[in-house]
Design goal:
Alpha-Beta Plaits, 14 helices, eight-stranded mixed β-sheet, 46% helix, Ribosomal Protein S5, domain 2
Length: 432
């Protein structure tokens, strides 16, 4: 359909069910108008006579499996109702033209020149990396025009970059590869781009969660071929919401803190002649605990113990969801959060012990949950600064947001829901 046809189609309300599935009833109309505005923006920039398609790629939340993927462990993640959306069409050239409303960017990438810049930074390098990843994986690429916007919160641990990457992967798959690619291929291409064109040592978690959609568990025992399982569970049916709270950003450079987690876990693995903890038997660690403490250090041991127990918790959480034992699932989330705080120790940086936004926010949230006797919370993502997650009954959400924003500031708490779809061409879901 052309631009005006698509606008008319959406304004007729024919896809209300689809928008409710993606965004929830309360936000259906707002997002319908968001798509209409995007189409108008595309028309003004590129013309209204081309056949266009709509695309959507969600942000993600890490529900459990905190700091396990880099040592080839297990995670539980989900796609959320915040997304990166785009209108695109083939342009039959060797150039890709992208306009991003969100970041006020307008740039073109030449398919004949995909070498990274000297800085290896920014959106253009990321796009070049994606295109090169497609080529090296044996897939087709071609020229297209895209007009994009995103409401995936930056610097909130919900993977705004991965959401953008998977959106472009969906476009390229749809336009040039007949939709035959699976979402695992998307994730590997996103990882390739970040590793090679940003020099960022990212894994596959963010991309996988954004690409696949819904609740998923991932086993990274073989990182080249991670085992992905989609969990058939309707989170919304439990009358609970997921809230992400921005606690305030630390001022120090946290690179050393982040790197210390995988490095210290690997130090324990090295004691046993292994590369990562997934290759180590927990019982063997316990049998040699004194020697490991002496060689690797106490914090390394604690972080290794977190790794092993966190893997077990992910398994228990998945089992609880499959058996519809939601309260048991929440108890495991609480245990996971406690382990991150006490054993993994990624809730604040030791470089500035007076800056503890995460721990203060967690403490206040725990007080709220203790009073109400319902809900769960934990640090979200990498930690040390940034974001926490709370899972609360819907009837407590507004009260909690008012309560916590007294500490974290206005508009710092975001109510989210798990959506069942990952990175998609929206047109393919019309009429379903």
């Amino acid at each position: 359909m052309k631009v005006k046809e698509t606008i008319e189609y959406l304004e007729q309300g024919k896809e209300t069910k689809l928008f409710e599935t993606l965004y929830g009833k309360a936000d259906t109309e707002k997002n319908r108008q968001r798509y209409v505005a995007l189409l108008k923006g595309y028309g003004a920039a590129f013309g209204e006579e081309k056949d266009v398609r709509l695309f959507s790629s969600p942000g993600r939340t890490e529900i459990s499996g905190n700091h396990t993927d880099h040592n080839h462990g297990k995670v539980l993640a989900g796609s959320i109702n915040l997304d990166c959306v785009g209108v695109a069409s083939k342009n039959n050239t060797d150039k890709i033209h992208i306009i991003s409303e969100t970041y006020d960017q307008d740039f073109t990438v030449d398919l004949k020149h995909l070498e990274p810049s000297a800085k290896k930074a920014g959106t253009i390098d990321l796009v070049k990396g994606l295109l090169k990843g497609f080529e090296e994986a044996g897939y087709e690429v071609g020229g297209f025009d895209a007009y994009i916007t995103s409401n995936v919160i930056s610097a909130a641990g919900v993977s705004s970059s991965a959401s953008f990457e998977m959106l472009l992967c969906s476009m390229i798959n749809t336009f040039f590869n007949e939709g035959r690619m699976d979402t695992v291929a998307y994730a590997h291409i996103g990882k390739f781009s970040e590793n090679r064109y940003w020099d960022k040592a990212s894994g596959l978690l963010d991309q996988m969660a954004c690409a696949v959609g819904g609740l998923i568990t991932i086993d990274f025992a073989d990182p080249a071929s991670p085992v992905v399982e989609k969990i058939d569970f309707d989170f919304g049916s439990q009358e609970h919401s997921l809230i992400i709270v921005q606690t305030g950003k630390g001022h120090a450079d946290l690179s050393a803190d982040y790197s210390s987690v995988p490095n210290e876990m690997k130090k324990v693995a090295a004691f046993f002649g292994k590369d990562v903890l997934q290759q180590v038997d927990e019982k063997e660690l316990l049998q040699n605990i004194s020697a490991v403490r002496s060689q690797a250090g106490d914090r390394s041991v604690l972080r290794a113990l977190h790794f092993f127990e966190e893997n077990k918790r992910v398994e228990a959480e998945v089992k609880a969801l499959k058996e519809n034992r939601f309260q048991d699932f929440l108890q495991a989330i609480t245990a996971s959060g406690n382990s991150s705080w006490k054993w993994l120790q990624n809730c604040y940086t030791t470089a500035d012990v007076q800056e503890q936004g995460i721990t203060v926010t967690l403490a206040l949230t725990e007080l709220f949950i203790a009073e109400k006797k319902r809900g769960a919370c934990r640090v979200h993502g990498g930690g040390f600064a940034g974001v926490i997650m709370a899972i609360l009954p819907n009837d407590l959400v507004d009260e909690y947001i008012s309560y916590i924003e007294e500490c974290t500031g206005e508009n710092s708490a975001y109510r989210m829901r798990i959506r069942p779809y990952g990175a998609i061409c929206v047109n393919e879901y019309f009429g379903k």
